[in-house]
Design brief:
By secondary structure, this protein is an alpha/beta fold. The chain has helices at about 1-25, 30-45, 45-60, 60-85, 125-135, 150-165, 175-185, 195-210, 230-245, 265-280, 295-305, 355-360, 375-385, 420-425, 455, and strands at about 90-95, 100-110, 115, 140-145, 170, 190-195, 215, 220-225, 255-260, 310, 315, 320, 325-330, 345-350, 370-375, 390-395, 415, 430-435. About 40% of the residues lie in helices and about 15% in strands. The protein binds nicotinamide-adenine-dinucleotide. Nicotinamide-adenine-dinucleotide binds near residues 117, 121, 194, 217 and 340.
């Protein structure tokens, strides 16, 4: 019975989305601006309720909800609204001599109906931020939030219903089955955020219809601290980036690679910083979130088995609480070092020479983020240039996501494509190349019979 209902809502959503796109309404720049302004007003109106929903879902601290969810999206909206009219205009490019005289331009065209599938870890931001980009580019959207953050997903559906016409943006709630039903339909673009495992499934579905995709996936993000780093400042920035959202951040440092000469000092500073941030009784801190699902809680606690702990290790199943935990030199074969941790466990591994460092990092698939703490510019440069990863920061963690001018995305196993700011607008637009040729001049050299032009053809490289 439930499947039938889901089937009909999925079918309706797809049909409405395609019809709305065909109506041409979503393409009108004035309409895009007006609905995005409406969305901004709705987020401001519901900001407290969004924070409450996030707290009910996994006790997300209010500051983190404002900074990383609502205000983050509002900043993106403001920036896009400021520039959209200009971005939407055809972009003139130089013509080539062979076509002289002509007018040449790139025209941004929306793809059509876009499917967005989101994860639970930043359940508001990761639904709304791609949605803003897709709508700004003139598409219609069907959005499937994660089934694991019910309160936030319900509120998103309400907000979307208040702002958008049916068919312009539609929210479909559901889990894996619903996601698969949606994927079985034909889309003009699929934007997925989630695990690499599911990303591969999405890619296979998209390939069947040759649908273009963006895959925003995860990875095992290394954080390197060399002997020259400012240790107390590094510790402060690592603790912030790692334990925000209880470590459930796709670009959080996954493990530390610290030069052995500064390891002890770094561990001491990290412990001091954890206690300063969350107090001695961390479970009572209003600033530390919980693990979002029971299965992730069990998975993370399982990773502690047989590990040497430097700090933490407390956990409470009834509250899905795991304290910030430092693991001492886990073996690279152990569970915690096999894949992405995605929780508040921080392995600390020391290295002696730079070659060891690269060997460890290169043993994993290309990560979504990489961080290097060092005062040595040459060392920073070697790490950044020699290793492939989605994006990162020198002497800080996570902040690369806050600059709207930087594309946000992975490479290899950590994803395909990058978005935010103008990159979002471009990502959700097909770039149509057009030449308008004048009728008043005509060079004969390209037309058959070619015989007389064969010699001239060797000079074409200078005119094309
Ligand atoms: P997930 O891959 O389990 O789920 C993401 C979405 O896919 C959900 O909406 C879910 O319903 C759907 N889904 C799950 N299994 C499916 C299947 N078999 N077929 C079709 N759809 C399916 O990810 P998650 O656990 O919600 O999120 C955590 C992961 O997301 C981590 O790996 C993290 O690194 C990654 N992530 C990446 C980014 C990024 O921007 N690159 C941001 C946040 C999270």
């Amino acid at each position: 019975m439930e499947t039938t209902l889901e089937n009909s809502s999925v079918r309706n959503a797809v049909m409405l989305s395609k019809d709305y796109f065909k109506s041409g309404q979503s393409k009108k720049i004035a309409h895009r601006i007006s609905v995005l302004k409406g969305l901004r007003a709705a987020i401001l109106r519901h900001e407290d309720a969004i924070c409450d929903a996030l707290y009910r879902d996994f006790k997300k601290p209010r500051f983190e909800s404002l900074a990383t969810e609502t205000q983050f999206v509002l900043a993106e909206l403001n920036y896009i609204l400021k520039n959209l009219e200009w971005w939407g205009k055809p972009q003139k490019v130089n013509g080539s001599l062979s076509n002289f005289p002509s007018r040449d331009w790139i025209q941004y065209e929306p793809y059509g109906s876009v499917l967005i599938i989101a994860p639970w870890n930043y359940p508001f931001q990761l639904c709304i931020s791609p949605l803003v980009g897709a709508v700004a580019a003139g598409n219609t959207v069907v959005l499937k939030p994660s089934e694991f953050t019910f309160h936030t997903a319900t509120l998103i559906e309400k907000i979307v219903g208040e702002v958008f016409d049916p068919g312009h943006v539609t929210v479909i709630q559901g889990g894996v089955e619903t996601s698969q039903e949606l994927l079985a339909k034909k889309w003009d673009y699929i934007f997925f955020t989630g695990s690499t495992r599911v990303g591969k499934i999405i890619y296979q579905h998209a390939a069947k219809q040759l649908t273009p995709v963006t895959l925003e996936l995860g990875g095992k993000n290394p954080c390197v601290i060399d002997a020259t780093a400012n240790i107390s400042l590094s510790a402060k920035r690592i603790v912030w980036g790692k334990f925000m959202n209880a470590g459930q951040t796709c670009i959080a440092p996954d493990y530390l690679l610290v030069h052995q000469s500064v390891k002890e000092k770094l561990v001491g500073e990290i412990v001091k910083r954890i206690e300063k941030s969350y107090g001695k009784e961390i479970d009572a801190s209003p600033d530390f979130a919980r693990i979002a699902t029971k299965s992730h809680f069990t998975r993370l606690v399982g990773m502690l088995a047989g590990q040497e702990l430097l700090f933490g290790g407390d956990h409470e199943a009834s509250d899905k609480y795991i304290s910030p935990t430092l693991l001492d030199e886990p073996s690279l074969d152990s569970e915690v070092m096999k894949g992405e941790i995605f929780g508040p466990l921080l392995p600390i591994i020391s290295y002696q020479v730079e070659e060891d460092l690269e060997e460890i990092i290169l043993g994993y698939e290309k990560p979504l983020a990489l961080y290097v703490f060092s005062k040595d510019r040459k060392f920073q440069k070697r790490i950044i240039n020699n290793l492939s990863f989605g994006g990162g920061a020198i002497n800080d963690t996570v902040i690369q996501i806050t600059n709207k001018n930087l594309p946000f995305g992975g490479v290899g196993n950590s994803g395909i494509g990058g978005y935010h700011g103008k990159h979002s607008f471009e990502l959700f637009s097909h770039k149509k190349g057009i030449i308008r040729k004048s009728n008043w001049m005509e060079l004969p050299v390209r037309y058959a019979p070619y015989k007389v032009f064969v010699k001239l053809a060797k000079w074409f490289k200078h005119f094309l």
